């Protein structure tokens, strides 16, 4: 099983309170912990080793415990193994035999803590020169793959997945009601889309589309199965992210719905093929909407929510508003698809 280490640095004066809190929740979470003095002589370091699935609950308890002071620091990092083992199977057997554990059902809780997830998503949601370079490189790879009708090259562009991170960040920001992260993710996504589209349109204007390849053709139209694919792949991608898998590894699963249609739209528009450009643009828009709608829903199912009551209320309103907007946009796109086919 995946393990995490939570290190808590506190003043020595808080030793008894921290130890008592950790001991109270230890039977439910099944972790081990110990304390060590630090060199400054005024602080202690508590280290907690636990299953990754328990990290979110324990982090919430610690955040509530330390809400009244700023004289602490909590750091979470991965652990490869621990001896003696944290025997999860043994704990499950005890529960089946009637253990009177008072812990809450954790079935819907995300595998990684909210703080870990936020840190991972933030890295791919902020605009930087590295992100711009990644967008340009992946766009060039995708353009070559579509023009040459080479699936392997197109998959190479998918793996880079520059548009995935901002969309995941936008979904998480909506779920948490985090306006700052939402603005950052929208800005990064907008820059990525504009760069990719401008580069593709420029190539289409300069070179045209000498041949309507199969890979270009399939991205010039949108079907109802594409919407289902985007919803399912978006949900699967978010689940994998909450399990602690780096976003780049999920790219091949989700980028299928993002980069190639956008590149095809730019190429068609630059070459003056307006109906095909409209079809590719519709596919890209539908997949962006489905990805975000599925992302918000999956984060909620995974138990990703703010901790405080005030933040929960704010996040609830933001989630409802965003879900309404995405749903209306999806309904409008489905209406356009229906009109095009009838």
UniProtKB/TrEMBL annotation:
Pfam families recorded: DUF389 (PF04087)
InterPro entries: DUF389 (IPR005240)
Keywords recorded for this protein, A-Z: Membrane, Transmembrane, Transmembrane helix
Protein name: TIGR00341 family protein
TM region(s), chain numbering: 131-147, 153-176, 188-207, 227-245, 252-274, 280-301, 322-339
PANTHER family xrefs: AT15442P-RELATED
Lineage: Bacteria, Pseudomonadati, Thermodesulfobacteriota, Desulfovibrionia, Desulfovibrionales
């Amino acid at each position: 099983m995946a393990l995490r280490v939570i290190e808590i640095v506190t003043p020595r004066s808080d030793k008894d309170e921290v130890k008592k809190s950790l001991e109270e929740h230890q039977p439910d979470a099944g972790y081990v912990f110990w304390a060590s003095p630090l060199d400054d002589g005024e602080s202690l370091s508590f280290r907690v080793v636990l299953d990754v699935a328990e990290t979110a609950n324990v982090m919430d308890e610690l955040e509530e415990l330390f809400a009244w002071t700023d004289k602490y620091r909590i750091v979470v990092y991965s652990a490869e193994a621990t001896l003696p083992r944290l025997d999860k199977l043994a704990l499950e057997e005890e529960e089946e035999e009637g253990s009177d554990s008072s812990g809450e059902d954790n079935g819907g809780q995300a595998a990684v803590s909210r703080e870990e997830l936020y840190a991972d998503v933030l890295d791919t949601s902020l605009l930087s020169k590295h992100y711009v370079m990644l967008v340009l490189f992946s766009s060039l790879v995708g353009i070559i793959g579509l023009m040459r009708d080479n699936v392997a090259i197109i998959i190479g562009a998918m793996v880079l997945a520059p548009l995935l991170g901002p969309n995941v960040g936008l979904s998480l920001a909506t779920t948490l009601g985090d306006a700052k992260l939402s603005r950052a993710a929208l800005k990064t996504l907008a820059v990525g889309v504009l760069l990719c589209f401008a580069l593709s349109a420029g190539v289409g204007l300069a070179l045209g589309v000498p041949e309507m390849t199969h890979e270009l053709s399939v991205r010039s139209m949108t079907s109802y199965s594409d919407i289902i694919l985007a919803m399912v792949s978006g949900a699967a991608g978010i689940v994998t992210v909450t399990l602690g898998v780096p976003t780049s590894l999920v790219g091949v699963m989700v980028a299928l719905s993002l980069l190639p249609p956008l590149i095809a739209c730019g190429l068609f528009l630059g070459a003056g093929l307006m109906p095909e450009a409209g079809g590719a643009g519709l596919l890209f828009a539908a997949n962006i909407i489905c990805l975000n709608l599925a992302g918000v829903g999956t984060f909620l199912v995974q138990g990703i929510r703010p901790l405080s009551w005030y933040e929960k209320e704010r996040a609830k309103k933001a989630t409802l508003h965003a879900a309404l907007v995405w749903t209306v946009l999806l309904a409008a796109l489905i209406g356009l698809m229906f009109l095009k086919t009838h």
